[in-house]
Design goal:
The protein is an alpha/beta fold. 38% of the residues lie in helices and 8% in strands. It has three domains: 1-57, no CATH class; 59-233, Rossmann fold (3-Layer(aba) Sandwich); 236-327, Cytochrome-c3 Hydrogenase, Chain A, domain 2 (Irregular). The chain contains 17 helices and nine strands. β5 (142-143) and β6 (146-147) form a beta hairpin. It is globular and about 80 Å long. The structure holds ligand FSX, iron/sulfur cluster (SF4) and FE3-S4 cluster. The site of ligand FSX has 15 residues, from α5 and α9. The site of iron/sulfur cluster has 14 residues, from α13.
Length: 393
């Protein structure tokens, strides 16, 4: 029996009515559940549990607070199209308080928050979007007359789980950019305890949805790293899974926006791409369900490290990245035809410690990192003419 039939059999009753509820076919829904399970790195068979949980589990109440931010996190949730993510979000969770999406305002909105907190005491999920200003006793952000510092503590006290969505809530993000005039701080700093963080400016909506669905399916949040980031999404450097990685390994770089290297899709390292020091899965899941390559590097702009504390909004956008490690790409074929020939191991010594880099690629890389584009082309032409005429020295 194939997987799809297995899921159909397991959840035939539970799936009843899914078309009406979500406005999508069962097949699309089940494919979506498989994608979520894969995104979470769950073992084979977990897609059935995910499908079943989404369909049958009681929707957790979610209180969503907004502080210092641009609402891009919520916007990105509403911009996915296949299937319409906001439908799933609103079906998977009971969004009882969200300042920008709820119809209520003023006292009604405050009452909705208090009612949801009382009715779901100890069971609701608190999602925080935006940084929290702590300078001058927290006076720089108030909602309904309450300071953000007070609101987040009040709402977190009886929450079953706290999720900081976006870089602002995760580590301060853009509002904390030096000299940080309002003392913009992360949720964990203000609460004085670790929380799950989904950094990114904005973060990928699937990482948020997968985290919530994990909670729904297994009754607990996913494994996180020391910064609170779900390991399924933030355990690999962008550079390890980038479609331009073969160009990096072969030493082919765009040197300026619009130059030949840029037009040919070469690596953006020399334009300041922070993929080598940013942990996120942008390159593998993309944004907005708009098809392949819909992520910053795929669109031709260097990654600015928006998800990484100490990189995004901190390092100059076009400053070259610090290389944390170099390992062979997982998914993309390596380009071998222009790797260095006849170079000695000694000349590769400078980067010999870079795990997994083939010696030939490493030689090209070391040389090309220091060359201008024109000089690179000249080097290649020289190498090619040498290989055609072995008499040349
Ligand atoms: Fe904006 Fe969210 Fe950036 Fe911050 O995303 S997209 S400024 S991470 O909190 O709204
Ligand atoms: Fe991709 Fe950037 Fe790494 Fe180049 S430096 S391979 S563009 S992540
Ligand atoms: Fe941000 Fe870089 Fe991903 S800029 S969206 S972490 S590719």
């Amino acid at each position: 029996m194939n997987r799809m039939n297995e899921i159909f059999d397991l959840g035939r009753d539970a799936l009843h009515g899914i078309e009406q509820r979500l406005g999508m076919s069962r097949r699309d829904y089940l494919q979506f559940c498989s994608t979520l399970a894969v995104t979470m790195g769950l073992p084979k068979g977990a897609d059935a549990a995910v499908a079943n949980a989404i369909e049958t589990a009681k929707r957790p109440s979610v209180i969503w607070l907004h502080f210092q931010e641009c609402t891009g996190c919520s916007e990105s949730l509403l911009r996915a199209e296949h299937p319409t993510l906001e439908k799933l979000i609103l079906d998977v969770i009971s969004l009882d308080y969200h300042e920008t999406l709820m119809a209520a305002s003023g006292h009604q909105a405050e009452a909705a928050r208090k009612d949801a907190m009382a009715a779901n005491k100890g069971k609701y999920v608190l999602v925080v979007e935006g940084a929290i200003p702590v300078k001058d006793n927290g006076i720089y952000c108030k909602i309904g007359g309450h300071k953000a510092t007070d609101l987040v503590k009040e709402c977190a006290a009886d929450a079953a789980a706290v999720i900081a969505i976006g870089s602002c809530a995760s580590w301060g993000g853009m509002p904390s950019t030096g000299p940080n005039p309002t003392g913009a701080s992360s949720v964990a700093e203000v609460l004085g305890k670790p929380v799950v963080t989904i950094p990114g400016c904005p973060p990928n909506p699937y990482n948020f949805l997968a985290t919530v669905v994990h909670f729904l399916t297994f009754g607990k949040l996913p494994d996180v790293d020391k910064l609170g980031r779900p390991k399924f999404a933030y355990s690999r450097l962008i550079h390890e899974n980038c479609e331009r990685r073969a160009h990096f390994d072969a030493g082919r770089f765009a040197m300026e926006f619009g130059d030949e290297g840029h037009r040919k899709g070469y690596c953006l390292y020399k334009l300041g791409c922070k993929g080598p020091e940013t942990y996120a899965n942008c390159s593998t899941i993309g944004f907005g369900d708009a098809g392949e390559n819909n992520w910053p590097v795929g669109c031709g702009h260097p990654c600015i490290g928006c998800s990484e504390k100490g990189v995004g909004f901190t390092k100059p956008i076009h400053q070259v990245a610090q290389m944390l490690n170099v390992t062979p790409p997982l998914q993309y074929a390596r380009i071998v035809e222009q790797q260095g020939k006849g170079a000695s191991f000694a000349s590769a010594a400078a980067i010999a410690a870079l795990a997994g880099a083939a010696a030939g690629a490493a030689v090209m890389l070391t040389r090309n990192l220091g060359l201008s584009h024109a000089a690179e082309e000249a080097e290649r032409a020289k190498a090619e003419s040498k290989s055609k005429d072995p008499a040349q020295v």
